[in-house]
Design goal:
Largest sheet: 6 strands, antiparallel
Number of helices: 7
CATH superfamily: Clavaminate synthase-like
CATH class: Alpha Beta
Helix content: 10-25%
Shape: globular
CATH topology: Double-stranded beta-helix
Radius of gyration: 18 Å
Bound molecules: 2-oxoglutaric acid, fe (ii) ion
């Protein structure tokens, strides 16, 4: 998308349009953005709903931070109101090997009410060293045969991230989600944090259905591979797109500033994630 300055105060009409585009396409890429201040990114993100609050990168969330960001660069260790940083490169988190890929996932699908909108802004991204991949799950659903579409209607799967958040109960989500804005159907959040077959069918049938609904995940027709450049700002709607970090060229630094927003209360998330107020 061109001509949008995400650093400017967000206009409700523009945000509505972005939400509609996201509901159809899953991802919007803005190049050459300059949100020097964290407040600008928080203001932009807040226009989409309640923003995620700072606990994700506080010390008590080390178990989560380890996944992405530790050890942090000293300049980025401060707790800030609503942003955290993904830092990759020498001295920070790097893939264990060149071919390493993160699992496909939908952010926060292990919560009952995940915040749908994720925002990443590249403060530094060298060359072509980093990619994030996106797979359009509206189109993946459309590609299912009619028999499978009928079989998966109404099924639910368990999303579970207790290995990192022991206090957090597993939650159920529909395998096929109807997007509240577009009314279109998407395969939701698989495989991500949902490894078990749907509950309503036998394990054997469930496994065979999961194979079918994830068969199109790697389909080139539905995948966009974003190559990061400094200044990029990406917004995606986790209800209809999956993503994963692609392979990285080791030795290159990437610094992304991350925010997330949607309906729901950040305090409530804090309580549920940490099991305390
Ligand atoms: O590191 C990446 O490229 C993707 C990270 C990710 O999954 C996220 O920020 O939600
Ligand atoms: Fe993610």
């Amino acid at each position: 998308m061109r001509g949008l300055d995400a650093a400017a105060p967000p206009q409700p009409g523009v945000i509505r349009t972005l939400k509609c585009i996201l509901a159809e396409h899953g991802l919007v890429v803005l190049r050459d953005q300059q949100l020097n201040e964290e407040d600008q990114q928080i203001a932009f993100t807040s226009a989409f709903g309640d923003p995620l609050s700072p606990w994700l990168h506080s010390d008590e969330r080390n178990s989560f931070a380890r996944v992405h960001t530790l050890p942090k660069r000293p300049a980025y260790t401060g707790i800030d109101p609503g942003c955290h940083y993904l830092v990759n490169g020498p001295g920070y988190w790097e893939s264990p090997d060149d071919g390493y890929l993160q699992d496909w996932h939908s952010d926060l699908s292990y919560l009952q009410n995940p915040l749908p909108y994720s925002v990443l802004h590249a403060l530094e991204a060298a060359g072509d060293a980093y990619q994030t991949w996106y797979s359009n799950q509206l189109r993946a659903y459309d590609a299912l045969d009619e028999v499978t579409k009928r079989k998966v209607a109404g099924l639910s799967v368990r999303h579970d991230f207790r290995e990192v958040f022991p206090a957090l109960p597993a939650v159920l989500h529909p395998l096929v989600l109807t997007h509240p804005i577009s009314g279109r159907k998407a395969i939701y959040g698989l495989p991500g944090f949902a490894k078990d077959p749907p509950l309503e069918v036998t394990a054997a049938e469930g496994r065979s259905l999961l194979e079918k609904v994830t068969a199109h995940l790697e389909d080139e027709a539905f995948i966009y591979r974003h190559v990061w450049r400094t200044g990029d700002l990406l917004i995606w709607d986790n209800r209809c797109v999956l993503h994963r970090r692609g392979p990285q060229a080791r030795g290159q630094t990437r610094i992304l500033r991350r925010t997330q927003a949607g309906d729901g209360s950040a305090q409530d998330l804090r309580r549920r994630l940490l099991g305390k107020e």
